[in-house]
Amino acid sequence: MAQTSTQHEHYYVPAQSHWPILGSLGLGATMLGIVNLIHGHWIGHYLFFIGALAIASVMFGWFRDVIRESHQGLYSKQMDRSFRWGMAWFIFSEVMFFAAFFGALFYARNLALPWLAGEGAKAATHTYLWPEFKLAWPLLQNPDPKLFVGPHDAMPTWGLPALNTLLLLTSGATITWAHWGLYKKNRTQLIVGLFLTIALGLTFLSCQAYEYYEAYHVYKLTMASGIYGSTFFMLTGFHGAHVTIGSIMLIVILLRCIKGHFTPEHHFAFEAVAWYWHFVDVVWLFLFVFVYWF
Known about the structure:
Residues 1-6 have low confidence and may be disordered. It is built from eight helices and no strands. The protein is elongated and about 70 Å long. The longest helix has 40 residues, at 77-116. The protein folds into two domains: 1-75, Helix Hairpins, CATH 1.10.287; 80-293, Cytochrome c oxidase, subunit III, four-helix bundle (Four Helix Bundle (Hemerythrin (Met), subunit A)). The protein starts with 18 loop residues before the first helix and ends with a helix. By secondary structure, the protein is mainly alpha-helical. Its EC number is 7.1.1.9. Residues 7-294 form the Heme-copper oxidase subunit III family profile domain. The chain crosses the membrane at residues 21-39, 45-64, 85-108, 158-178, 190-212, 232-255, 275-293. Belongs to the cytochrome c oxidase subunit 3 family. One of its GO terms (molecular function) is oxidoreductase activity.
């Protein structure tokens, strides 16, 4: 974080804040809205909108408060270490978050499907649960096709997914280039690098939105398409949400860079967002390989 020349050696403890509870309520409303949207309930649209608005308000207000505290010189070197550890553990928690979903995909593909096919000692499972089942991935035919209509085909690998991979890999390079511009006090390189990173992130989201349109209308792939549809939308959807959050954070950092908030010595806010963006890039690489390619 940017700091003034006035430093406080003590550990700064902020006053009680309403942001955490408001953020929790916003997340809860958003998830309830998504669940109701999936089930076709009319209230889902309103809950999702209210939750998303609450989350946006929390992000704006909390960022504003932290920036104000930083400019007041309330953060010491000890606070800087706390911020770094906090961000590191936050990213670790996000790694575990996606690890759970990749674990669900691994379980479905490498354990549950072979059991249904009767491999190993699971012949009875195949005989009694689904005798017509043939081992294949993606699973396009479900036990009750009338209730769970399978997709027409699997999502292609080398179309939009490959383009999105190129976009995110390039964005990882542009934000690193911007970081070097900050170190070298090259303001043009810093701002142009951040602008390009944001543009690439928003382009990624646009491509993913179009891919979802194709999934629904061309391939007939939905959340009700069985394990393939649910794992596909679960992993790509949560990743898209993280790209959205990362893009908002990058926009905030760009505005702060334009205002001259950072120096080569004090710019952890920039570093934290860069860490998060690189994490998003790495998750997409795993997602591209295991969801689209294999």
